[in-house]
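Project standup — Tuesday

K.O.: blocked on the structure for the chain from last sprint. Re-posting the sequence here as requested.
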Amino acid sequence: MKKNEVLYNPFEAVENRFTPDADFDTAKNMVEASVVSFGNRSRLKKVIKKAQSGGNINIVTLGGSITEGSGKSDGEYYGDLLDIWFKDKFKTANINYTNAGRGTTTSLFGVSRIERDILPLDADIIVVEYAVNDTILDEKIAAETFEGLLRKLLMLPSEPCVFVLYMCLSSLGSSMDIDLPISEHYDLPTASLARAIKYQLKTDSAPEDEEYIKQHFIFDGVHPDTPCYHKTCEFITYQIEKAILEIDEIDDDIPPLPEALVSERFMGSRILNSTNLSVSDITDEGWQLYNRDAPYTERGFVAIKPNASITFQFNCKILALVSRKSLNPQIGSIIVKVDGNDPLEIDGYFHEGWGTHNNYRIIIDDSIEKIHTVKVTFSDKKNENARKKLLSEGKNPNDASSKFILSEFIVS
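H.V.: unblocked you, prediction finished:
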């Protein structure tokens, strides 16, 4: 395969590939209906045998806020429940669980953190959940980063079983239509919440509308309620239980990794921050180092003075800038110039208003690796929605801006 060659066009994926099929129609319950594929189970067999013999089993859940457990207490989201299930099922095994979910992140971030956050965990089984958050990405980038993520996980020395979990919005929308041909290409065990909900709506003869789904499954349009988290865990444990029953029929040999289906462009993605970046110029003393330790370490930069600039150099093909979106309407924005080209403005105000989070913006996307100069200037120019909000509250929209946080960069 030629480098960066696209072998499969994700935009030709058939819409709603999870439309009920024969297996769906014969399902006895929504857990059975959730099964998209049992996939190749050689890696899962290795996990089961190791657990049955009392070995160490390292479980990792990797995804966005659904995985992180946004709005829920410990023990209520699917990863915690999976940990509890493993410990009850394999009482002599030493079960270790790591929740590697991080809110508002996509496969773009996931593929870049494998070496830093996942490799040291020596995982035996990894559940991947990005289908909701990947809907905010350009479809081509979503497909490329999702494939890079799966390939990097499957290439880990621990040879983990990678389980793909397609969660969905209350509209039943997700990136599954784009990603499913990729997970099928790697023959991975896969489950879909949308399939399960569609089955339940059918069997209940319930109206297929968002309000009904929000009431029974996804309370805020994005995140599952507690019963739905329990059911989601069952999607995973059902496939493991079935593998246990059929263990003698499963091949021991793990198949070789196939060639890429979409692209390998993001296989080399990594995270750069203040610990491994060389800053060539900081003007006006308006930028300082920024440290944040939870839920995952961030070592970036924070702007504290309008018109202050900071300049970086990167040797890359692709570069994404990660900045913090804030609920503070006085946050201001940054002006980004790459190699002296036309400026790009990135607003720091999150007018949707559901919570502070990181914003990912690809600012370089090239086919050739070369050195780029990136200059970031802090501006006190405010989002027009922010100005209106401040005026409605009787505040001066020209007041001094708050700190603007540049969390990290993703480079490939």
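K.O.: great, moving the ticket to review. Residues 10-249 form a domain with the Rossmann fold fold (CATH 3.40.50.1110). The longest strand covers residues 357-379.
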